[in-house]
Write a structure and sequence with these properties.
By secondary structure, this protein is of the alpha/beta class. The chain has 15 helices and 18 strands. The protein has helices at residues 2-21, 152-157, 176-185, 203-215, 233-251, 264-277, 291-299, 330-338, 347-352, 374-397, 405-421, 431-443, 454-467, 469-477, 483-500; strands spanning 29-36, 39-43, 52-55, 61-67, 72-76, 88-95, 97-100, 108-109, 126-129, 167-170, 192-201, 222-228, 256-262, 313-321, 341-344, 364-365, 501-502, 507-508. It is found in: Cell membrane; Membrane.
Length: 511
């Protein structure tokens, strides 16, 4: 009888405690012990969870990052100049998240989902935690659909598939962001949602990107997330995770999403700054030991889902900056090992005016080749072989060696291939037109055209492709391009060149 009464008393006490804890006026608070450079040390929050949001005075939020025995290290996610030692803080019992809905398209937002474009509040369907587990292997489908950048040198040599992670790396001012922006512009007719995540960028540089996207009618399907150089380092740290959560919202609805991280070098530096301020042990180049993990857990979230789980895809184009083309530095080697290939840019090619300045010998796509249009795959092998031979012979010929006719032909064709792979910014080219141009140059049809007139020949070939709907359909649908079809097209190109080119004096009829 006594045991039964004790049991009932215990249940009554537990119910009363649960009821009291459920009341809104019950909260756990702590005190700011110190604050410096976006980091606050809190005393008193003994039950706080990792990555839980902490409320500071003035509606500033922070994220619990270091859970020590006597204190909690918090990274601040907003303005902190008004916060002082001794201020009271409280738990929010929530993790950092971002509002997600269709209304974010065309908007400029912060990593916490706050609008930065003065276009009013954003209607929210759902709140997505910024830290989420990557989809399990069994939920993933093969990468089998191409994501066209509109750039001939990339779509032919280092193609990208939907769900792939392709790294863009190069020194400062070599055109890394330009490739990303061109890729966004090329998705205008492709029904792909684009997210441009600017990490630690100057506001003027971000404003220029936004203006370009508006000029090319690309903002309607694009979200720009900005963690500026003047933001707290905690904001730069969470920015790529928040952008990825936003992309996952659309991916789970069956949409194809392209996300640009510009750039992860600044993200790594922000994390290093936070870790050193939190007195975490430094490793190589003063980066903390888990620097590889923070990028791998971010990029592993990019994938192509099976139809049963939405069928959408999230394609990542992370950007990093190298020093003197050093690909063996700490952060570049980490990201090269995580991603499915890289597009390497060369400052030497940039200075020569070869734009995009893609270094073909160093660039590779470990997945995207399977997604190429079959006709494209047929000509790609010949393109790579011819161009690699040209690069080797060009170095050899620079010593003034006497060359035979075969070598001269390879050099002349290589010069025309290089001219064809050059492309003005903000002028993406449709895939069938790319195939027509590259087919003509690799077959030798353009060997008689002077190098400085190659761009005119390209425009003529683009017109021919647009006029021939049957040829376009065969390129996109046939498993293998028929040789008769190929020869017929090349003959039309040759005939048109003869019509528009005065062979007697070498001057083009069209200029």
């Amino acid at each position: 009888m006594l045991i039964k009464q004790l049991s009932l008393l215990e249940e009554t006490i537990d119910a009363a405690v649960d009821q009291q804890l459920g009341k809104e006026d019950v909260e756990e608070s702590g005190t700011v012990m110190s604050i410096d450079n976006g980091i606050a040390v809190i005393k008193g929050l003994k039950a706080v969870k990792n990555q839980e949001l902490i409320k500071f005075p003035g509606d500033t939020m922070g994220m619990a990052f270091n859970l020590d025995f006597r204190s909690v290290g918090v990274i601040l996610l907003g303005e902190y100049k008004h916060i002082q030692s001794g201020d009271r803080v409280t738990r929010s019992y929530q993790v950092a998240d971002i509002p997600a809905s269709q209304d974010v398209l065309g908007r400029v937002i912060s990593p916490l989902g706050e609008p930065l474009d003065d276009l009013g509040p954003i209607e929210t369907d759902r709140r997505m935690p910024i830290e989420r587990e990557a989809p399990p292997i069994m939920h993933r489908a093969p990468v089998n659909k191409p994501l066209q950048t509109g750039l001939k040198v990339i779509d032919s040599v280092v193609p990208i598939g939907k769900g792939q992670r392709e790294l863009i790396l190069g020194d400062r001012q070599t055109g890394k962001t330009a490739i990303a922006v061109d890729t966004i512009i090329n998705q205008r007719e492709a029904d792909v949602i684009c997210i441009y995540c600017a990490i630690g960028q100057q506001i003027t540089a971000v404003a220029k990107v936004i203006e370009v996207l508006k000029e090319h009618d690309a903002m309607g399907y694009t979200v720009v997330m900005v963690a500026g150089s003047e933001s707290a380092p905690g904001v730069s740290f969470i920015a790529p995770y928040a952008a990825t959560s936003l992309g996952e919202y659309f991916m789970e609805k069956g949409r194809d999403v392209l996300i640009i991280y510009d750039d992860l070098t600044r993200h790594a530096r922000a994390y290093r700054e936070l870790s050193l301020l939190l007195e975490r042990p430094p490793g190589r180049e003063a980066y903390p030991g888990d620097i590889f993990y923070i990028h791998s857990r971010l990029l592993e979230r990019s994938t192509h889902l099976k139809p049963a789980f939405g069928g959408g895809s999230l394609t990542a184009l992370p950007i990093i900056e190298t020093q003197a083309e050093n690909l063996s530095a700490y952060i570049p080697t980490n990201l090269i090992s995580i991603t499915d290939g890289q597009i390497a840019l060369s400052p030497k090619l940039y200075q020569k005016g070869n734009l995009p300045a893609v270094k073909i010998g160093t660039s590779v796509s470990r997945v995207g080749g399977k997604t190429q249009v079959p006709a494209y795959r047929q000509i790609t092998s010949a393109l790579k072989l011819t161009y690699s031979q040209f690069e080797e012979l060009e170095t050899f010929a620079s010593f003034g060696t006497r060359l035979d006719e075969s070598t001269k032909r390879i050099l002349e064709r290589g010069k025309r291939i290089r001219a064809v792979l050059n492309q003005p910014q903000y002028q993406p080219i449709e895939v069938t037109e790319q195939i027509g141009i590259l087919m003509a140059v690799t077959s030798g049809t353009l060997d008689s055209v002077p190098v400085d007139k190659i761009s005119q020949a390209e425009r003529m070939i683009q017109t021919l492709v647009r006029e021939d709907e049957t040829f376009r359909k065969q390129l996109m649908e046939e498993e293998r391009l028929d040789e008769n079809v190929k020869e017929s097209f090349l003959q039309r190109v040759s005939d048109r060149l003869k019509e528009e080119w005065d062979e007697a004096d070498g001057k083009p009829a069209i200029d």
